[in-house]
Design goal:
The complex is a heterodimer of chains A (295) and B (429). Helix content of chain A is 68%, strand content 2%. Chain A has helices at residues 6-35, 51-58, 61-92, 99-107, 114-124, 131-138, 153-161, 168-178, 182-190, 195-222, 227-233, 244-254, 258-286, and strands spanning 38-40, 45-47. Chain A has a two-stranded antiparallel sheet with strand order 1-2. In chain A, strand 1 (38-40) and strand 2 (45-47) form a beta hairpin. In chain A, helix 3 crosses helix 8 (168-178) and helix 5 packs across helix 11 (227-233). The termini of chain B are far apart. In chain B, strands 1, 2, 3, 6, 12 and 13 form a 6-stranded mixed beta sheet that branches. A 5-stranded mixed beta sheet of chain B has the order 8-9-10-7-11. A two-stranded antiparallel sheet of chain B has the order 4-5. In chain B, strand 1, helix 2 (38-54) and strand 2 (58-64) form a beta-alpha-beta unit. Chain B has helices at residues 2-24, 38-54, 67-79, 94-98, 107-110, 123-127, 151-156, 162-167, 173-183, 204-211, 229-243, 251-254, 276-282, 318-328, 331-340, 349-352, 355-358, 368-376, 386-401, 408-424; strands at 28-34, 58-64, 86-90, 130-131, 134-135, 137-143, 145-150, 185-186, 192-197, 266-272, 288-292, 303-311, 378-379. Helix content of chain B is 45%, strand content 16%. Classes of the chains: A mainly alpha (295), B alpha/beta (429). Chain A binds chain B through residues 39, 41-43, 46, 48, 51-52, 55, 122-123, 126-129, 145-150, 235-239, 250, 253-257, 259-260, and chain B through 71-72, 75, 78-79, 96, 100-102, 191, 250-253, 255-256, 258, 385, 387-388, 391, 394-396, 398-399, 402, 404, 426, 428-429.
């Protein structure tokens, strides 16, 4: 009897995922790459070479606007989100009574569907009766038209993004924190390190791979913001929340320019690839892996 | 083991039974897709049930899709050739979809069916159904915008009834502003407690433009028409309601329906008649009614808009689908939808002019306000590139409506240039 090779079984086990990847991810990706060189409106299709890309890059002010909106949003929301998640994880990592209840409570907001949370935030940001302006009013500030004044709308979206700091990112940080051996802290304490010093020289370096992971996912996630902008502001006022994903959606499903939308998607893919490559390159300077020898 | 076998047996038996039932059903199966709130979908279901009862050889199933997903769902279904046989399409999307050849030309039926006579319908209702000279739809939920007003508040303020003024030709934009100023109130802290009028959003501001002798686009929809002094004056009137006279809620004041008409804190609003079914149910503590949109300095502000009932081009049962289409615009269906349920205006002239429609027993009572639009309103400038046009116009108008730019002329010049640039470009790129 012929003996099965272990590799074959491995292949069989990953086959469901592999088929899913080929048919639902790689296939559509290749199709969209082909479509990006066509004029396709769901009924007719014509090859147009690189015209979609030329149009987007050289004759489409809204492309640059959407990129500017998305980059600005990512620039503020990702670091703030990571800092917030880390702070929460540090607090929830303390050995206190009811720690599991606290962890659950802080995780709960991330379970609220994005449509529901968008509606909730539209109330919070209401200029007249909203909680935010009411609170600011107690200190003599307020009166800001958060979602109607283009100077503040993107800021409101950044604030709203912090709603998710207790979600998956915090859990990953928490897992990372719990993976740091107590012996490092003991050694540091024996050397007389303060709490800050322990955090700065033990926690942060050992947590840097987790932080790096969260950073990459955070940037990718920030470039894909869609639901809130679609529901709360529809890209307005005056395109102040015209996020890149909204631009893709509108071109594809409102204007039927599927070729152009595919080109937009591929430009986004290339931008994200470049940013991720840059992050990997920069990570050599600040990400430390346990047990790695430092030259 | 025995239990598992028993369950498997039951499952197989059920499948076999359902298969037999399906085989026994020799009726032609049709799908009809529509959207709407719970009440509207209940009415659609009632129509489908009535049709099925009268047509035992057919079986229509209502395919309900939530409003938020309807546009995308219908597009994907048309493109993937899985569309239901009959579909209701919003007029905002109709010309765009019609360009893509998804709809069957209905002339083959309208010209040969002795039971169908296009002359029985308002010409404006038929006009919306054409694309490139082809009749591709029948009109449903047709009508124009009206003004809804709180009679109790107007009486308290000693103001004559707007509908009476309209009958004398005296209900104008000027008079509307005068009313709105008198009906706006502030509390002791200077915060608005009551607004005179709701903001005329799209397409109501297009109606105001009509009254000023202006339009968004040229007649052939090929270029912007917003560079005229009349267009600037119309939009200045609209913007000034909010930022100069402060008689209508700002975007944030109006958010989350804080000054919804039902609250009794808004004296007048621009809206469609369809909303009144909710008002009849909710409003108990004040009187209200409707009147037409106010005339502008150069004419009427009346506009019309409906939904299009289309037949999917590749339906396997065109004759059966035509019977359904014809039923939904039949006298019976229109009587049910527009006279009993009062969702919009009948598209049939006879029904719209009948005493049953014009003299209802519950508010709104001033039904000639609705008939006025369908008789002499103007269609909206909606062409195949409407979604792009209105996005460009909307983003420019945002600054006017949010009060960042107070001069309408500046905004209209920008919108004019942006729309002309858009319309001069290759539509596919």
């Amino acid at each position: 009897m012929k003996k099965h090779q272990p590799g074959r079984w491995g292949f069989i086990f990953i086959l469901p995922w592999l088929l899913g990847f080929i048919f639902f991810t790689a296939g559509p990706m290749i199709a969209s790459l082909v479509l990006s060189f066509t004029r396709y409106d769901l009924s007719t299709i014509h090859f147009v070479g690189t015209k979609n890309y030329e149009r987007i890059l050289f004759d489409e002010p809204l492309f640059w606007k959407s990129l500017q909106v998305t980059v600005t949003y990512a620039f503020f929301s990702v670091p703030l989100g990571i800092a917030g998640s880390l702070a929460l994880a540090l607090m929830l990592n303390q050995k206190v009574a009811g720690e599991r209840i606290f962890r659950t409570l802080f995780y709960l907001p991330s379970l609220v569907p994005s449509v529901a949370s968008a509606l909730l935030w539209s109330w919070i940001f209401n200029a007249d009766n909203g909680l935010l302006n009411y609170t600011l009013g107690l200190f003599g500030w307020g009166g800001v038209e958060w979602l109607a004044d283009e100077r503040y709308t993107l800021g409101a979206f950044v604030v709203m993004s912090l709603w998710g700091i207790g979600g998956g990112r915090m859990i990953i940080f928490l897992a990372g924190l719990q993976g740091i051996s107590e012996s490092y802290y003991e050694a540091a304490r024996l050397d007389g390190a303060s709490a800050w010093r322990q955090f700065r020289n033990v926690t942060l370096p050992l947590l840097s791979p987790v932080m790096f992971f969260n950073l990459i996912l955070g940037v990718i996630g920030a470039f894909q913001v869609f639901t809130q902008a679609y529901i709360m502001t529809a890209g307005g006022p005056n395109n102040a929340t015209y996020f890149y994903a909204l631009a893709i959606f509108r071109n594809a499903f409102e204007y039927f320019k599927l070729g152009k939308a595919s080109a937009l998607a591929w430009i986004l893919f290339l931008i994200l690839m470049a940013i991720t490559a840059l992050q990997f390159w920069a990570s050599k300077r600040w990400v430390h892996y346990e047990g790695e020898a430092k030259s | 083991m025995n239990k598992a076998l028993a369950i498997a047996g039951i499952l197989i038996a059920s499948l076999a039974a359902s298969n037999c039932t399906a085989k026994a059903d020799r009726r032609i199966q049709l799908r009809y897709m529509a959207w709407g709130n719970v009440e509207q979908l209940a009415l659609e279901q009632e129509l489908v049930d009535r049709f099925n009862r009268r047509n035992p050889d057919l079986n229509v199933r209502l395919f309900k899709v939530p409003q938020s997903a309807y546009g995308n769902k219908s597009i994907v279904m048309f493109a993937s050739r899985t569309s239901p046989d009959v579909v209701r399409v919003d007029h905002f999307n109709f010309p765009q979809l019609a360009e893509r050849n998804y709809f069957r030309d209905l002339s083959e039926f309208t010209e040969t069916d002795p039971e169908f006579d296009a002359k029985e319908f308002f010409p404006l209702a038929m006009q919306e159904n054409y694309s490139n000279g082809k009749l591709l739809a029948l009109n449903v939920l047709f009508g124009g915008g009206v003004m809804i007003y709180n009679k109790t508040l107007l009486k308290k303020a000693g103001l004559p009834d707007p509908f009476e003024l309209w009958k004398r030709g005296e209900w104008t934009t000027e008079r509307t502003l005068e009313y709105a100023i008198k009906l706006t109130k502030f509390d002791a802290n200077g915060r608005p407690s009551q607004f005179g009028v709701g903001f005329p959003n799209m397409p109501f501001y297009v109606g105001i433009m009509y009254g000023y002798g202006a339009n968004l686009l040229s007649e052939d929809l090929s270029r912007s028409a917003m560079d005229t002094p009349e267009a600037s004056e119309a939009m200045q009137w609209v913007a000034d309601l909010r930022w100069k006279h402060r008689v209508c809620p700002s975007p944030s004041q109006g958010a989350n329906a804080a000054f919804g008409f039902e609250t009794g804190r808004l004296a007048m609003e621009f809206n469609y008649i369809g909303v009144t079914s909710r008002y009849r149910e909710k409003i108990k503590d004040f009187e209200w009614d409707i009147c037409p949109m106010p005339d502008g300095p150069k004419g009427k502000s009346l506009f019309v808009k409906g939904n299009q009932l289309v037949m999917y081009r590749e339906t396997k049962h065109p004759a059966a689908a035509w019977r359904l289409l014809k039923f939904i615009v039949s006298e019976e269906a229109e009587r049910f939808l527009y006279i009993e349920q009062r969702r919009q205006s009948p598209t049939r002239i006879k029904l719209a002019q009948s005493s049953d429609f014009l003299q209802p027993k519950a508010p709104p009572f001033n039904m000639p306000s609705v008939t006025a639009s369908v008789e002499s309103g103007k269609v909206l400038p909606i062409g195949p590139r409407w979604p792009e046009v209105i996005t460009v116009v909307g983003s420019e108008f945002d600054s006017l409506f949010a009060g960042r730019e107070r001069d309408a002329k500046v905004v209209l010049q920008r919108a004019h240039k942006a729309v002309n640039k858009l319309l001069s470009e290759d539509p596919g790129l």
